[in-house]
Amino acid sequence: MIVITTPTGQIGGRLLQILLDGTRTRDEELRVIVRDPGRLPDGIRARVDVVTGSHGDAEVVDRAFDGADAVFWLVPSNPREASLDAMYSGFTRAAAKAFTTHRVGHVVGVSALGRGTPVAGRAGHVTASLAMDDLIASTGVAYRALANPTFFDNLLWQVASLRDNGVFTGTEAADRKAPTAATRDIAAAAAGLLLDRSWTGTGEVPVLGPEDLSPNDLARIMSEVLGRPIRYERQTLDAFGTALAGRGVGDALVQGYLDMMRAKDEGLDERVRRTPQTASPTTFREWCEQVLKPAVQA
User: Which CATH fold would you assign to the domain 2-151+180-209+273-278?
Assistant: First the structure.
């Protein structure tokens, strides 16, 4: 049995659909942990075992992990969390105990690039995510952390600005190239690991996208796909932090984002080489055509 957390999120929802659609999943029982089962489409809810509640709750994960062979682990965002440690490791501690209690064999988690870089210890959300990985690994479970860069899908937060003003913003230098990936490729990588549980020990699985791109590259491709000029405006970190606070993000998490973006601009995501094993297939152009353009035109 495979247990899936965040089954209504960008990655967890896509993962669940991949598993439900796949022929290799035919003999696998699927169980999901979800706060509101009503958010699951009827056709999906009828095909999975549903445990209602938060996967940060000890009683919930105790029920959910009973009989589980594998777990997909993703910490949900909580903009008002008191600290980064509470958001990542604190949220995960009950599950880490339950992995051991229920002898879960394999866990696949969503994490970040950056381990081993000079800035990894001061990279905000990334630093906290890597500490969460260490906590899970300390249980002795076979663990793979999906080490991810920035998501293409983060641009969906800026659909209104792209549509109305032809502008998107960020804090990185306009010509700085870095890996970027589609969340659907992260879900696909998770599915492969959850279905083929021959791996042992702990490690990372980078999901780097097919090529490094700069904000200027993103602007050019979006312009071509959307059929209108799109330009990039670089924000200061202070302006970025003010915008986050205006959306209700708490002080600790705002600082975590600022530290993460500063570290990314200092090379946080650039340690891992792109190989056939670390490259993921979806190009930014494909993602723009299939996801961004319909969202802008909606």
Answer: Rossmann fold (3.40.50)
